[in-house]
Design a protein that fits this description.
The complex is a heterotrimer of chains A (319), B (272) and C (663). Chain A is mainly alpha-helical and 319 residues long. Chain A has 14 helices and no strands. In chain A, α5 packs antiparallel against α6, α5 crosses α11 and α7 packs across α8. Chain A starts with a helix and ends in a 6-residue tail after the last helix. Chain C is an alpha/beta fold and 663 residues long. Chain C has 21 helices and 23 strands. An eight-stranded mixed beta sheet of chain C has the order 17-18-19-15-20-21-23-22, with helices on both faces. Chain C has a six-stranded mixed beta sheet with strand order 6-7-8-3-9-10, with helices on both faces. A four-stranded antiparallel beta sheet of chain C has the order 2-1-4-5, with helices on one face. In chain C, a hairpin with a 2-residue loop joins β4 and β5. The longest helix of chain C is centred in the first third of the chain and has 18 residues. Classes of the chains: A mainly alpha (319), B mainly alpha (272), C alpha/beta (663). Chains A and B meet through α1, α6, α7, α11 and α12 of A and α5, α8, α9 and α10 of B.
């Protein structure tokens, strides 16, 4: 098991290295004249030259890359163009705020989604099952940015219950903070809950039809033990995989949600950076998010291996 | 043959929207960029079925034009996804070994970044353009299509009739085309329908973030983004395109479900 | 007379199918007397499992019990509330299912699963249950029970899993033990061990058994009484010895006549023609009449009732008559010295497991800790043999011995790692027309999207053997060879039965007029009656077309029936080969001896010598030092078996045995 973990970790490192090259290429090489792009259409030649010098864009590309990558490995994420401050601390603050948003949302998505999935699977083809299925159908079909707008319109505009912006620091009081964060979390959750619920439902239904569940019933065990001990344990394993995918979708959703609700997280910072053509910030931001996503996937892989006795204990055949 | 209700319902709604989109310019009562400052923020009325926006432009007309772009991005992206993804999946599933490993490692790379962020990465540094967005979204979904095609191909390639074909010396082209693909396309078709819904939504989201279409042209995503500052004063500007967007997605979802119902039993029956 | 442990009366169960209902079993009645074992026999689709599941109350929710009753020791089961029935399950009535690989929860240790009925029904606490679990595991013959109790299902072999499941079923000392095809998924040597175990458990515990199976040989071994099901109806029942020696219903006669037996080789098998009835629209009159060779007009209109243990009005009249037997023995191929058609020398194949990343191993014992040593399996390890034109060489071995790999190498599907293959002087790739293959699974061997004509015609087009309208003509000829009419041309695989699909596969293989066909378990997935039919077809083709076969199977009785020579394979190598009559007689390789004695034969006398192998897993992969059979050999003579490769000895002309024991 340890060896498996190390192998996966090595693999993550390789992926991050290759992604860094891709990110670098997409932001600094592909657009062509980066300096022109930064300064805009009406720039003078002098301004362009100044930018080129500042970012040392006249060096050969691989030197530029190595310089950037080298700095990264030492923990230096570079300098923000628009704010002229080191990026590291900026990202650290922003990522903490995004993490809060993501964390709460993920917990709710997992909890509500799994519960709904199991609930509808056990009551397959009942009225409750159909009602929930129809509901999930609609939830899946609404993109996050539209949910956000509708929520704002409804809760902030018409009902006036909740504020339209997403953030108030905890220092202003727990309830204030909560009121601000409810809408962004709700937006993020509605989209993904359906995803998890659907998958858990079908996984659970399949497990309930498996031979070992029938065998457990044949032992005379009461249904609740059959479901809890035999079915759930196996049915939830694919859910781990889905949650890993959802972390990625959540990250995408966070970019949108932070933008709409003006929540000062990493997502909104990234969008600003793009608008301002703050290339070092864009590079650092995307790479950070990629790293976090890769680690989340690694955690999911390890959890999956942990719960799968085949990987955890190997195949020593008793004779 | 009895068509399932979902297919009929979804198909008709989608057909309606698609036709409306195709005929856009002919149907639209006003040009999509026809500004009329005197007519700003008019609520829905007989003259303007969905009202007007901040520049006095007719929302319905903009929606019709926007339909073309949104649908184009959705369908175009899926087409790109299929054209690139299916052959790669077939190759990986059939040839296995080195080819399979290479393709899967490349796929692992592509999915190491979450979808919207990949879109941001590809599109942020260059001026927005619906074709580019469509291609980018297509590429973003290639890994999913490759994985699906690969797993279906693996399953079919292990069937004995494929082994029999290899044993009699058939060329790989024949095996892939005449033995494997005819059995593989049902799940691929069903997945494609699902992909269209995701592509439409991702395309709209990227447009919402300013990475899709260049103003004054607009698709539904950009319309909603532009309407955001005035959402309370003139909600119809955002709600109308939003609802149509959701309707389109629901319609395509229904089509996908209907296709699955139609194609699946044939698969099972085919297995004896 | 004591109350029967189980009495099922007039039970009918139906499932929804399409617009209506499909009656899976109709008016089924049987009894399990105290301390006795009842065998319920039928082919696939006969409804035998359905009756057992109905008794336990474990039918799928959509199933409907239309009528009938089931009584357990006088107590009516169907009227009990669910809680009371749950009390019975696993406690007084237990069941062992067919597939040990899917009947255990992969996420829980085995011991815990065995303890569940103890904890739940007997109120034991965890510690007491653990002790009892160990005792049970020892009782079912598992060595090192404590280790096994802590193991997870995937760490145990199939035989061990099934023993554990038997232990679970016996945990609360039930009065009735139901077994649903418990050995069907296991190798024949393992099956023999499990049957031994069941017999001894019956004696020691006195438990009554309901044994469901399709294998009449097993019934002969274990069951006192037998009940024969066909299409969901009881057609005959009675004491096993009586029914098997003097069957009264035509179906039972046909079933017995279609069994290949090691002792009665080379006579034509007598299959039951036709196919299984469509239960949603059963034929009028007697349900068996479309396939019966004693059918008269009355049979077509009058449904039969069960009278005196048999459902046939002609039973008394037909007593003593055997099922119609096709005349003529299968002629043996006299070994003419024409030179070998197929020659195989030192053939070997090693598979690598896992992908690129799995190849890296971390090993701190020697040198640099990170090594690239991908795990591998030696599927075939140095095999040599030859096949003469028109000869049938039977290759027998249990699962994992490499016989399929070997067969596939001969037709060029798998590249050998070492060794030479010559077919008619050329390599398999160059002789694609001369060497063909038939596969095992009828549901998988035909492309579901192609018609029969297209499937059989394709090889003709590929090799330019016919074109245009000639293709259709030739296809009709080929179908005729396998006894299928031209009506089949436009049909799709899903419209065909298992036997018909296999025959289409044979026709496809014959399209290029091959001289050599590899039959890779070609009849193993078919019901016994259909199997007989297809075997006859294959034998006829051999005679008419002078085709040679490599007939691969795990079933020695089938091979003994059709093969001129037999090769016995174990763990990648051939341990014995020679003419069929030589191999079936002593002297034997110890493995062959065990295989022969493991076959549950219908006519085997109870005192026949039983040779059992020790252990039950076939270890794969690691290179062997000494004899590859040493770990399980009941005749191991000592250290020499562990160190030296056994020499090949000639017991008779062309009869070779690889063993240290003197011939």
């Amino acid at each position: 098991m340890l060896i498996y973990a190390l192998k996966r970790l090595g693999y993550v490192a390789v992926i991050l290295a290759v992604m860094s090259v891709l990110i670098f290429w997409a932001t600094q090489v592909m657009p062509g004249d980066v300096a022109q792009m930064i300064v805009g259409q009406f720039a003078t030649d002098e301004q362009i030259r100044a930018v080129r010098a500042k970012l040392r864009l006249d060096d050969p590309i691989h030197v530029q890359y190595l310089r950037w990558a080298g700095a990264l490995l030492q923990g230096d994420l570079g300098l923000s163009l628009m704010m002229d401050r080191p990026i590291g601390p900026l990202i650290r603050e922003a990522i903490l705020r995004s993490a809060v948003l993501a964390g709460i949302s993920l917990v709710l998505v997992a909890g509500v989604g799994i519960w709904l999935g199991v609930f509808t699977a056990v009551r397959k083809d009942s009225k409750a099952d159909h009602a929930v299925s129809v509901g999930m159908y609609f939830f899946i079909s609404v993109p996050e940015f539209f949910w956000a707008i509708v929520m704002i319109l409804l809760f902030a505009g018409y009902l006036g219950w909740l504020p339209a912006t997403g953030y108030a620091p905890l220092s202003e009081g727990f309830w204030t903070w909560l009121k601000h964060i409810i809408l962004p979390v709700a937006t993020l959750v509605t989209g993904l809950v359906a995803h998890v619920a659907r998958l858990t439902r079908s996984s659970m239904i399949e497990t309930l039809q498996s031979q070992y569940v029938t065998a457990a019933r044949a032992k005379g065990l009461p249904e609740r033990i059959v479901i809890r001990r035999h079915a759930l344990r196996n049915a939830l394993v694919p859910t781990i995989t889905v949650l890993a995918i959802d972390v990625g979708l959540l990250m995408g959703g966070i970019v949108v949600v932070e933008t709409v609700f003006s929540y000062p997280g990493l997502g909104r910072m990234l969008i600003f950076a793009i608008e301002q053509k703050d290339i070092p910030m864009v590079q650092a931001g995307i790479l950070t998010i990629t790293a976090v996503y890769a680690l989340a996937n690694l955690a999911a892989d390890l959890a999956y291996a942990f719960f799968n006795p085949r990987i955890r204990y190997g195949n020593a055949v008793a004779r | 043959m009895r068509w399932p209700a979902s297919l009929v319902a979804g198909g008709s709604v989608f057909a309606l929207i698609a036709v409306a989109a195709a005929l856009g310019p002919a149907l639209a009562p006003y040009p999509y960029d026809g500004m009329d400052i005197m007519a700003r923020f008019l609520p829905p009325s007989a003259a303007h079925w969905f009202g007007t926006d901040e520049f006095g432009r007719d929302v319905l007309s903009r929606m019709l034009y926007g339909a073309r772009l949104s649908l184009l991005m959705g369908v175009g992206a899926t087409a790109v996804c299929l054209v690139i993804g299916v052959p790669l999946g077939l190759a990986a599933g059939y040839y296995r070994g080195g080819i399979d490993e290479t393709i899967m490692r490349a796929i692992d790379l592509l999915i190491s970044v979450p979808p919207i962020l990949m879109g941001i990465l590809i599109l942020s540094m260059t001026p927005p353009n619906p074709w580019k967005t469509a291609i980018a979204v297509g590429i973003i979904y290639v890994p999913i299509m490759v994985r699906l095609t690969r797993s279906v191909t693996l399953e079919i390639a292990s069937e004995e009739f494929v082994l029999a074909a290899r044993a009699r010396g058939e060329r790989p082209w024949y095996i892939l085309g005449a033995e494997i693909l005819p059995n593989a396309w049902p799940p691929i078709i069903v997945e494609s329908a699902l992909r269209v819904t995701f592509a439409i939504m991702l395309g709209a989201a990227l447009s919402f973030l300013g990475l899709g279409v260049h103003p004054p042209a607009s698709d539904w995503g950009l319309m909603i983004a532009e309407a955001r500052p005035f959402i309370v004063e003139a909600p119809w500007v955002a709600i109308a395109p939003g609802i149509v967007l959701c309707l389109t997605v629901i319609a395509v979802n229904l089509i996908g479900d209907g296709l699955r119902e139609v194609l699946d039993p044939r698969l099972k029956r085919g297995r004896g | 007379m004591s109350v029967p442990v189980l009495r099922v009366s007039n039970l009918s169960v139906a499932y929804p199918a399409g617009a209506g209902w499909l009656r899976a079993i109709e008016d089924v009645s049987f009894e399990v007397a105290e301390g006795r074992a009842l065998g319920v026999v039928g082919e696939s689709g006969s409804g035998k499992s359905t009756s057992a599941l109905a008794v336990l109350g474990l039918l799928a929710p959509e199933a409907r019990i239309e009528s009938g009753a089931a009584q357990f020791k006088g107590e009516s089961l169907f009227e009990l509330p669910e809680a009371a029935r749950r009390d019975l399950r696993g406690n007084r009535i237990s069941i062992v299912f067919q597939d040990p690989f899917t009947s255990l929860n992969p996420a829980l240790p085995v011991g815990r699963q065995i303890a569940e009925p103890l904890v739940w029904h007997k109120g034991m606490d965890a510690a007491a249950a653990a002790i009892e679990v160990e005792r049970l595991l020892a009782e079912v013959g598992i060595p090192r029970p404590r280790e096994v109790a802590l193991a997870y299902p995937h760490q145990l072999s199939g035989g061990m899993k099934q023993r554990a499941l038997i232990a679970t079923a016996l945990a609360c000392s039930p009065e009735l033990l139901i077994l649903d095809e418990p050995t069907t998924a296991l190798d024949v040597t393992i099956e023999a061990q499990i049957l031994d175990l069941l017999e001894s458990l019956r004696r020691s515990r006195g438990v009554s058994m309901l044994y469901i199976t399709h294998n009449l040989g097993v019934v002969a071994r274990i069951c006192d009484d037998v009940c024969v099901l066909y299409a969901g109806r009881v057609v005959e029942q009675g004491a096993t010895a009586a029914v098997l020696k003097a069957p009264r219903h035509p179906y039972t006669k046909g079933l017995l006549a279609s069994l290949p037996r090691v002792t009665e080789r080379k006579h034509r098998l007598a299959p039951i023609p036709g196919r299984f009835p469509d239960l949603s629209a059963p034929p009028p009159g007697c349900i068996f009449h479309p396939r019966c060779s004693f059918v008269l007009d009355r049979c077509r209109s009058e449904p039969q009732v069960l009278a005196d243990g048999v459902r046939c009005w002609r039973a008394a009249e037909l007593a003593g008559e055997r099922w119609r037997v096709e005349e003529g023995a299968i002629p043996a191929r006299v070994g003419k010295d024409e030179g070998a058609l197929v020659e195989v020398k030192d053939l070997a194949k090693t598979f690598q497991l896992g992908g690129l990343f799995d190849g890296f191993q971390v090993d701190f014992s020697r040198g640099f800790p990170l090594k690239f040593a991908p795990p591998s399996v030696r599927a075939v390890d140095g095999v040599s043999f030859s096949v003469s034109p028109g000869e049938v060489l039977g290759l027998v071995g249990e699962s994992g011995c490499g016989k399929s790999t070997l067969g596939r190498m001969l037709v060029g599907l798998i590249e050998p790692s070492a060794g030479k293959i010559r077919i008619a002087g050329g390599s398999p790739q160059s002789q694609r027309r001369a060497a063909q293959i038939i596969f095992q699974n009828p549901d998988s061997s035909l492309n579901p999207r192609k018609t029969v004509q297209s499937i059989v015609g394709r090889p003709l087009q590929l090799h330019d053997l016919a074109s245009g309208s000639k293709v259709r003509e030739r296809v009709v000829e080929l179908l005729e060879l396998v006894r299928l009419s031209a009506a089949y041309l436009g049909r799709y695989p899903h419209q065909l039965s298992g036997g018909e699909k296999q025959r289409v596969g044979i026709a496809r293989a014959l399209a290029t007029s091959p001289r050599f066909i590899v039959c890779d378990e070609a009849v193993s997935a078919l019901d016994v009656s259909v199997q007989a039919y297809v075997l006859n077809v294959l034998a006829d083709l051999r005679d008419r077309l002078n085709v040679a076969y490599l007939f691969i199977s795990h079933d020695l009785s089938v091979i003994a029936h059709i093969a001129d020579r037999i090769a016995v394979m174990y763990r990648g190598a051939i341990v014995e080969d020679g003419r069929t009559e030589d191999v079936l007689q002593p002297p034997w390789h110890p493995y062959t001896e065990a295989l022969l004695s493991a076959i549950p034969a219908v006519d085997r006398t109870p005192e026949s010598k039983r040779i059992r192998l020790r252990g039950d897993a076939v270890e794969r992969g690691e290179a062997v030092k000494g004899c590859r059979f040493q770990h399980r050999c009941p005749r191991k003579i000592g250290a020499i078996c562990e160190t030296d490769t056994p020499p090949v000895r000639e017991a008779a002309a062309g009869h070779r045995i690889a063993c240290h024991i003197e011939v």
